[in-house]
Amino acid sequence: MTAQLRPSLAACPACVAAPHDSSDQAPADARLALSLPGIHCQACISAVERALNAHPGIHSARVNLTLKRALIEAEPELRAADLIPLLESIGYEAHELDLAALAATQNDKIGRDLLMRLAVAFFASMNVMLLSISVWSGASDATRDMFHWISAAITFPAIVFSAQPFFANAWTALRVKRLNMDVPIVLALVLALATSLWETFLSGEHAYFDAALTLTFFLLAGRYLDYRTRAAARSAAEELAALEVPRAIRLLDGDEYEVPVADLAIGDLILVRPGGRMPVDGEIVAGQSELDRSLLTGETLPVFAEPGLAVSAGEVNLTGPLTIRATAVGEDTSLHRMTDLVAIAESGRSRYTSLADSAAKLYAPGVHILSALAFAGWYLYTFDIRTALNIAAAVLIITCPCALGLAVPAVTTAASGRLFKKGMLIKHATALERLAEVDTVVFDKTGTLTAGTPEVTNLGDHARADLEIALALAEGSSHPLSVALTRAAREAGIRPAGVQDITEVPGYGAEGLFRGRTVRLGRAAWVGAEQGSQTAAWLDSGAGAAKPFLFTDALRPGAAEAVQALKQTGKEVLLISGDTTGAVEDLAQRLGITKWVAEALPADKSARVQMLADQGKKVLMVGDGLNDTAALAAAHVSVSPASALDAARVASDIVLLGQDLSPIAEACGVAQKATRRIRENFRIATLYNVVAVPLAIAGLATPLIAALAMSTSSITVSLNALRLR
Amino acid sequence: MSVLAYLIPISLILGTVGLAAFFYTVRSNQYDDPEGDSRRILSDEWDDKPKP
Fold first, then answer.
1. Of A66, A150, A154, the CB nearest to B33
2. Most buried pick, A101, A465, A621, B15, via CB within 10 A?
3. Predicted ipTM beyond 0.90
């Protein structure tokens, strides 16, 4: 490979190619990943794979329908940008994915590990159960002893391998002198194995090998479900992050080079095309344009940009190409500094105790005391260590939190699956429980309640002739206001006037010649008008004063329904925005929100959320911008749309995958139902204990009763969880 | 009862074979795309001979 880089050889491509082919032992294949949101059937898989595999330079391509992705191995010089038009030409939407951001899900080690342990526990418990059933149905004497010995031989290695996660967790908890759910589990396993082995030595009647194994199996099943739910959410969240491939165009001696954002250094000249996002903080050195700062500050009015203006990473360039000189890169950009704020607020959330934790806190000491009392009582009664220990072990096994271990993961898996179908991604383990407690909802305005696309409000106020000129000028531009104006005028049946020599002046607007007069559509100052408080584009038709086209932000689909539904369920709805008072008041009235705050700085937002929390309110924060991140992290639970900035998505517990906001209200309902089911499950598990524990303490429990109690409680708990679907 | 001396080892060996097969399928990424695999059987590509 290095030979290719030598200038003397590279001058003659043929010389390189000829010896290269034969000696190329390890071709450094480029690996590409494409997201294909539109594929759904066998025909799609075949079509995409056939098209990709036929493309020169691709070694192999394979579609993964579950993840809706294509993984491609190709020549190093092949770019994803070359393949996207190819797939679009056969009718499939495709986006490039950043493989580095996906790397964590590619190799799902923990999940596989758990699955293997689960399989071993299942295999061993089925075999031992077979032998145990023979014992229960009457095998006696030498046969029974032999069956017990074989069971022991299967059980010990299986437990040593399968139960490792419990041993590890219990050890970490004990080392810091605390109790968690895993401590009684490990104690029960160890005590059950020890007494059973002892009984086997003495040719005893009862051995709990099968109980120890089924216990491990059920608990591992709970762990695996829990892990799967979170892994699915994590991989979907990572895919969202991977969709933004971090690349920038660096200018070097007048040439453009596409480089990863991570490689940019302070002082680099970077070209940002219209529609592109600022990769780093910097200062404009050339070009004129307008900047959309809504993701950072919440203001909807675009800002005029000219050389000398400082820009921060995350702002979007709207009209003309800009060249910026980087002043801060990577960790030092304002985007990254904001994440420090998030880290501080995050520590507050981790104080939340989940239902499972509070159950464990009650449960773990309770079982230990119960079992110790049973041991002490029977020892004092019979002065026989063997009987006392057997009964203590039986108490531990019967109370063991099989059903408790399944109670929470089974419900969250069902609820998360249901919400995922509605387009909601539950990222945090306790997010559902926290969502169920919410009584106050705080919305951000720009990009959350509004879609971020402007809409003309006063089209009817203009004369037809003016509209025709405005349409002609707007049509050629990709500025969001022009696009909105064009769409509205076209829908109203307006035909463009014959304006000639239309040119776009970046940062100002468009101008042209109409019947010998210069006509302009653009910023207020450019056409000699006064800028008002509302977003507007001004038309100078060459006759009379300039006329404004006023714009308002279009509502996001489902916004009105979501606010309505939340208010109906008795929740208080607030609107806190960084935008101007007029715009916020207008939107609040349209949606019927009575409490609103405008011109809020990022710190104000999080302070207000904090204040509500101090009043004892459980706040749900819905926001998308950088200015919301601190508030998102400070809230009891937080939601952000998929279009949000990466930092905001990371800070929130739930991500809305679609455009529609209405699932938010439904999610609150599902979360409440899920919490109710979890509590029900705890009650079911307790009920079984109330019946079985007295039997165990009285010394009447047999391995058969233990097995029955454990299996039925685990199965009823899982079935109860399934009712959520 | 001497038949047990054969039957128990046989049942254990068969179980172990199943377990080993499961390990093999997990390690060779056969559960990565359950949705896609269930649809791929509908394709008539590679019906005559396996994919090289």
1. A66
2. A621
3. no
